[in-house]
Amino acid sequence: MKKKLYVIGMGPGEAGLMCKRAAEVLAACDTIIGYTVYVNLLKESYPGKEFLTTPMTQEAKRCEMAFEEAAKGKQVAMVCSGDAGVYGMSGLMLEIGETYPDIEVEVIPGITAALSGGAVLGAPLTHDFAVVSLSDRLTPWEKIEKRLELAAEADFSICIYNPSSKGRPDYLKRACDILLRVLPPERICGTVENIGREGEAAKLYTLQELREAQVNMFTTVFIGNSMTKEINGRMVTPRGYRIG
Amino acid sequence: MKKKLYVIGMGPGEAGLMCKRAAEVLAACDTIIGYTVYVNLLKESYPGKEFLTTPMTQEAKRCEMAFEEAAKGKQVAMVCSGDAGVYGMSGLMLEIGETYPDIEVEVIPGITAALSGGAVLGAPLTHDFAVVSLSDRLTPWEKIEKRLELAAEADFSICIYNPSSKGRPDYLKRACDILLRVLPPERICGTVENIGREGEAAKLYTLQELREAQVNMFTTVFIGNSMTKEINGRMVTPRGYRIG
Fold it and tell me: Can you tell me the distance from the alpha carbon of B85 to that of B63, in angstroms, rounded to the nearest whole number?
């Protein structure tokens, strides 16, 4: 039988938003590997495990570590915040897995910030939507800019990941300026910070106001589509059902 | 204290892919309301509950039922397949909630088919992506067509919901023809059927082949971006990490 290696989406952080199968695999495994911040969120709930971490720019090394530990016969879980796929490690794990043909990779999905943040705000993504990361560490800014502009033209609701970091404090402002070429300044938008963790906070804005919003690397941003409205402080994109 | 009404994303169907908080709320509630097919998946796991259903075109009535039952003092959960937001009922619930100011709506997210199906295929949505439904019951076809075309131009990976139904057996073919105006015929695509349920099946295609694929209302379709490749029978969109 092939050895198995798990890539797990742990959801936003709160144990209640992890799926049952992910929790079961974590409880059964020997070794949990991931990015330091997210692995630390698991240490209390999974005592007695071996925890291995690598910092942000060491993703390929982190994956190789996971395969090497699994090759020794350990039950290994690579954890990702949110989903295992969406800006997660499942792609890189399957790429690196080519050189470990005896180890099978199983991907266990998780609730990504578009869904968990959406639930906090209300219902911003009820209809067609696009997800765009503003991180230009691995993607040219011109490509990000083009995706934002075309997503706005297509009238998608848009969910923005990684809106800011220390090295690029003004990226959300730049993204808003691109969106404002296509969308009206009063378009309903929202942000959620620290989803499912201490300090969770949601806020509504117009697109014009969002341009000045203070965001950080733990903020997820939502841009409404042409139908999105505010109902009692919540962000709601109708699907189009006739009421009454 | 305000009465509370829950809108729950139950994930694809398998209990292991439901989040813990959703399972806890279902276990604690008196009444579970939803579309017949999905409510039936829950009957065995939650014995002793009151189950209420309405058919496909009665969504507003279903939501009103939920508020009326909650107004009587019952603990009520409205369930949606996948996520509570993505093509789910949270938007309509918040709209109808305007006429029930004494009842607070709490949204509990779930794993939508883009994530659960993506995990089965491998890692199709590792980078920026768009989600488009081909159902034109509530959306003009011209708008769907425009969204597909702009999503392809933006080089998003695209996840397609509702690719077919009895009344519109050729919609996926029509969608592929639109995508083929922009994308090459050899673009890597994939489908997943009955995710997390009996009969789960994944398959890879080129975009040209996908045009002829047999799909149904329980199929989710994935269109790769320009970087997507096949690795050992799995669909993988690299995020761009340098390997080695």
Answer: 14
Q: What are phi and psi of B165, to 5 degrees?
A: -155, 175
Q: Which two tokens stand for residue A151?
A: 């997503």
Which residue is listed with tokens 């509370």? B4
Residues in chain B within 8 Å Cβ distance of A154: 130, 146-147, 150-151
Contact A129, A156 (CB under 8 A): yes
pLDDT tens figures, A43-68: 999 999 999 998 777 899 999 999 99
Q: Is the pTM of this model over 0.90?
A: yes
**Distances in Å between the alpha carbon of A167 and those of A158, A162, A164, A222?**
23, 12, 8, 22
| Structure-block tokens of residue A196 | 């499912």
Tell me the shortest Cα–Cα distance from B236 to chain A, in angstroms: 6
Question: Which DSSP category does A30 fall into?
Answer: S
Residue A166: per-residue pLDDT? 85
Q: Note whether B110 contacts A109, CB cutoff 8 Å.
A: no
Interface predicted TM-score of the whole assembly (ipTM), two decimals: 0.96
Q: Which of A15, A23, A84 sits opposite B119 (nearest CB)?
A: A84
User: Given an 8 Å threshold on Cβ–Cβ distance, is A86 in contact with B115?
Assistant: yes
Say how far apart CA B37 and CA B223 lie, in whole Å: 27
Of residues B11, B24, B231, nearest to A19 (C-beta): B11
Q: Which two tokens stand for residue A20?
A: 């049952």
CA closest to B237 among chain A residues = A91
Say how many CA atoms lie within 13 Å of A161 toward its Cβ: 22
